[in-house]
Design goal:
By secondary structure, the protein is an all-alpha fold. The chain has three helices and no strands. It has helices at residues 2-30, 57-122, 130-176. Helix 1 (2-30) crosses helix 2 (57-122) and helix 2 packs antiparallel against helix 3 (130-176). The chain is rod-shaped and about 110 Å long. It starts with a helix and ends in a 6-residue tail after the last helix.
């Protein structure tokens, strides 16, 4: 159904352009000076002449305008689709950075507790359980490694998404300036 609306609006645009252009062409012909016995000064500018041929005719013009409108819609959709992905990746990055900071603090605290327990064991106090402390430190470091890997993946995805978004914005600017994107 959206396709029918697009086709109808394209036909309406083409009909309107055709009507307005033929009105303008008709006015130019009607307003052209009648032949007179007085010769015009050849150095004066001659009135603009109508083109003898419009490449592709009015249908060609309509097709070109349809293509440009389609390009604008596609660019708008692509930018609109890319933006939520960027926002999601940025939010995920913020959460991962918070988790990284928390996990890094835990790893430092576990490392200090393990160092204290090892010192006390060296001094003859064997009441602490070194096995549990080593296991806790290993688990914290594995969690830290997991968060670090997730943050690395997020950063690579964010970079790729930003590059795509930036490329789309540049193409949009080229379209806005009237150049055709490659």
């Amino acid at each position: 159904m959206a396709k029918d609306n697009t086709d109808n609006s394209s036909n309406d645009i083409a009909d309107t352009l055709e009507r307005e252009l033929s009105d303008e062409f008709g006015k130019a012909v009607v307003q052209s000076p009648k032949s007179s016995s007085v010769r015009a000064n050849p150095k004066e500018a001659t009135p603009a002449r109508l083109p003898r041929r419009i490449e592709g005719g009015f249908l060609g013009l309509r097709d070109d305008l349809d293509e440009r409108a389609r390009s604008w819609r596609n660019m708008s959709r692509a930018i609109a689709q890319q933006r939520p992905l960027l926002e999601t990746l940025e939010a995920e990055r913020g959460a991962l950075l918070e988790t990284l900071a928390k996990t890094a603090e835990e790893a430092v605290a576990d490392g200090k507790a393990l160092a204290l327990l090892m010192e006390s064991t060296k001094n003859g106090d064997v009441t602490g359980n070194l096995t549990e402390r080593f296991d806790a430190s290993v688990n914290t470091l594995e969690e830290l490694a997991g968060v670090s890997a997730a943050l690395t993946d997020n950063l690579l995805s964010l970079r790729s998404s930003w590059e795509q978004y930036f490329s789309l914005v540049l193409k949009g600017q080229e379209m806005q300036e009237g150049r055709r994107p490659d």
